[in-house]
Every structure is written in structure tokens, then in C-alpha cells.
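Quick illustration for those who missed Monday's session on complexes.
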Amino acid sequence: MNAFKEIETRRTFAIISHPDAGKTTLTEKLLLFGGAIREAGTVKGRKNSKHAMSDWMEIEKQRGISVTSSVLEFMYEDYHVNILDTPGHQDFSEDTYRTLTAADSATMLIDAAKGVEAQTKKLFKVCKMRGIPIFTFMNKLDRQGRDPFELMEELENLLGIRSYPMGWPIGMGQSFSGVYDRVEKKLELYNPNNPKEIDVISLTGPDDPLLDEAIGDPDLVSQFREELELLDVAGDEFDLEKIKNGELTPIFFGSAISSFGVQTFLDHFLKLAPAPTSRASSNGIINPFEHQGFSGFIFKIQANMNPAHRDRIAFLRITSGKFERGMSVKHVRLGKNLKLAQPTQFLAQSRSLVEEAYAGDIIGLFDPGNLRIGDTLVTGPSFEFAEMPHFSPEHFAAITVKEALKHKSYEKGLHQLTEEGAIQLFKTYNRFVEQQIVGVVGVLQFEVLEHRLKSEYHVDIQLEKLPFSFARWVSGPEKEMESFKKNQRNLVTDRDGRIVALFDNDFQMRTAIDKYPGLQFYENSFIK
Ligand code: G4P
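Prediction with guanosine-5',3'-tetraphosphate bound:
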């Protein structure tokens, strides 16, 4: 296969959801379709499971959750699918957000009984910021859930995105009978006694009498026809351009646990989702179908995945060209060459060595400490990809080292964890005694921080939780900034010296925003 074809068949996406919506289950089913795993249950350690995928950290084992995100890949038909797994637990980290920068599209998984939940909303925002296509899978239709119209309304009201149902469910919960595929005009029948056995019936349309025969219940059928008519008349039209821009989300209905609707989703998704997309760089747009040279950026660093080896792995998203093991690339920030001799690939539990990879793929590079989040690697003329943003932490603590003598190890550890993106480090601004403040997206990161400083750097720290919930990067005209810096309380600087304002609550934040209309308050460090 030539490089063009290789790249064209790549689909790199992330699944975003709130914990318990069924992400692990859906991922397992997708891997099963791709033949990547033989039986479900090996993707990550469930509660009480003996098979924790990444048991690199004791916390993970203790809590039975996967703290770190990983990459799963499989072949399906001619497609080379890469799923970026984002931690599903409530205590997710900034890693989760950054992982989304490596994805070309996202699948938003929603529990049909619960609708749009908090974590989904946060992750959706990041996808929206990037303008990537978002596909929606309404899960758990085998249980009584919310009315599908209500769910569509919620997408619009809470997330501000219009939707186009690709299929429409017939019944729900006890009465769930199947899903009608509006595009292919197919009826997939749900058999509660044997959900894995899915009968597919081709129809001429929703009025086809075959549908009455297959469903059997006239009330359900007439309700379905009414709903579909309403959808045809009042719903949005299918618009590929809008889907590609992330303005319209195609909705699929199913039940991941019974594999119902999963293959239909996968088939449609692979056709509609984009191949590896262009990225902005200091040298203009890098289009993987035009740019010949190899290029990629680091979006995540994970240290000590295996405590026995003390390794550090940098995850690289290839943005153009072909990777070959042993190749030499330029590390643009350091201005030196690196030989990529020992890259790994992650699939479920195994780690294997990659010989070659293409734009769209993710590879893990063993790194002795040269790489940083946001670094660009290239062959040929140098350029750098746009800076990787930091996102507003939601939990803050003042940090101090318990034994002053260990200050050096403490600083080293903090530096490492900041580079990995596990924490954000701020300094108080214009205070008599400067203080370091740690900000994290998920509160579990505080435990991770304490644990890792102790086990890897032999340092004990003291964390004093602070009442802030929001950080906003602030910029604007010099005069207004000066007045802001003089009058606003709780200002800090980030590691690049940018001014960041911390707020206890939304009200406080709104007040400041109203008071300084000439200033911009950004939710992430990606100040444009
Ligand atoms: P997560 O990764 O998003 O956190 O969710 P996960 O797949 O672990 O699923 C959360 C729970 O929801 C699991 O039940 C799972 O079996 C269930 N589930 C997933 N998809 C469906 C579905 O389509 N229908 C129904 N009815 N349930 C579904 P659990 O009891 O918490 O765990 P387990 O003991 O079944 O593993």
C-alpha cells in the first residue's frame, strides 16, 4: 500500500463520556469487531479485576481504576483504527484533555437514562474548541431511558450542538425492539433473549409492511412512524459539511453490552469520520496528504509505567509522513537529532515494537528526558506545531516540602511532573513571600503527586487545599492589565510567566469579567 492510501485509511478518535456510561464496554466491543482481542474484558482493570492493564502505579491498583490514558489500535475492513482511551474515572487529569488534541474526531458516549453528564460536558468543550467532528452513541437502550427527542434537546441546550439521528429506536427498555437505520433503510431487530443474534431486515422505508410484521406490536410501530415523520419534518437535514466542522452530531442508538448497534455505528462512523487532518504549524498548515516529510508532536508523557524499569514514555501523534524504526528526526526545540530506535505501540495489555507507522498513528517513544509535551519532531525543514494548551485546573493547593534539605529533589520532581502535564505549577504574583501553588484538573492528581514525589524522589510534601475552583489566563491592553494586576486578588503566574487569576466560584469570576470588559479571560493557556 502506498503512503497516501495508508494515511487515508487511518481513523484516530477518542471516546468521551462520563464514568459508567459504558466506555469500557463499547471499547471492548469495538476491539472485538476488529479481532484485536478474542474476548471482552481485557481492555482495562475493572473494579476487583485481576487484569489491570496498567498496574504501574499503586494507586491504580488500590482504586481499581485506570488513571492513565492509552492507545488501542485495530484493523477493521480496510481501516486502521486508533482509539485514544481517555480515563473514565471522575478524577481524570489534564492528560484527558490533551489526549483530545491528538484525535481527529470524537465519539461522545451517553447513557440514555442519564443524558449529558458533567464530565462529558467538559470533554465536549475541548472537542468544540478544536472544531473536530463529534459522533454520539446513545447507550443502554435495553434499559428504560429518556425520550430520544428529549436527549436531542439536551444536546442542543447543554452543549449547543444540533444533531442528526442516523437511526431511530423502536421502543426502549422492556419494549426495546430495534433500531431503524435512516440512511441504509435497514431494521435491526433486538432480541432480548439472545441480544447477540441481530436480525437485519432491508426495508423500502419506514412504511414498509415488513416492519409491522417484524415488530409485531402495532402501537410501537405507529409511535415509531409518528416520531420518524416528526424528525423528517422538524429535524435537521443530514449535512456532511456541518458534521465535519463539529456543528452537527450524528446520533446512533444502541446497547453496547449486547453489541447492539455497535457494528452499525462503526460502519457509518468509519465512512464519515475524517482521515488524519491538517494541523497548524509555524510553517503554515501541515497537510498529511501533501507534506512529504515525517512530523509529529508529543501530547502526553508518562513516567515509570513499569516501576521495575523506571521508564519514561512520550506519546507522539504522527501528523505527516511515515515513521520507520531507527530513523533520525530533528527535535526542533532542542535543535538536535534523535534516533527513534525503540518505539512501542500499545494494544490492550501488550506492548509491541513498531516497525513503521503513518500519519494518524500514535507511537510511544522511550525517552531519557529529552521530550516535553508539545515538542515537535520532524525530518526535513524545521517547523513547530502550535503550543499545547493548559486547561483550567479545578483544584488548587499550596505546596511545600517537609524537609528543607530535600529541596533539590523536590524541585526536580515538581519539574518532571509539570513537564508530564500531571500538575500545573503556579507562583503567587506580587506577594511578599512567594508561594508555589499546584493546580490539578482531577483531585486524584494530588494523591498521584504525593505518591510519586515520595516513591520516585523520596520527598514528603505538605499540601494545603485552597478554595479556588477556576483559573483564567488573562490578557489585554497594557493599561487595563496594569490596573487589573494592581487591584485583583489571587493572581498567580504560570510557568511561562503569564498572568492567571484564580477564583473561588463562578460568581466571583463573572464579577471580575464584568469589571474589566477590556480584558480577555481564557479557560486555557491557548491565548490567541
Ligand atoms: P465506563 O467505562 O464508561 O465507566 O463504563 P463501563 O463500560 O465499565 O460500564 C458501566 C456499567 O454499565 C457496567 O455495569 C456495564 O456492564 C454497564 N453497561 C455498559 N453498557 C451497557 C448497556 O448497553 N446496557 C446496560 N444495561 N448496561 C450497560 P456494572 O454493573 O457497573 O459493571 P459490571 O459488573 O457489569 O462490569
